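Hi R.,

Here's the chain you asked about this morning:
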Amino acid sequence: MNLELNDWYRLVDRTPVPYLIYYFVDGENRVAGKLIQTIEGVERPPDRLPEFEAWAQKKYPGLLDELMPGGNIDPALEKAQLWKEKLLEWREEVGLPNVLEED
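And here is the predicted structure, written out as tokens:
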């Protein structure tokens, strides 16, 4: 069982939840694929993503289509950088703390 916590989770105030990862190996013991699965009965607590999405739709029409083509997060590095930039901008504009600042 794993827990993930990353900058994106912090920026949308998402609490990590446990999940399972299954790795598939080929005949040479190399990872050939993986399956990430939620754990039955474990619900994800609410986060601020809907608030960000509402803000983005008003301020930057088309941004969400760029960040989430087909409704799925695009994991490309340039998209991750854009997510971070816009989430930080949103948090500052609505008065939320910068959760990425070093103590």
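One quick note: The chain has a mean pLDDT of 90.

Cheers,
M.
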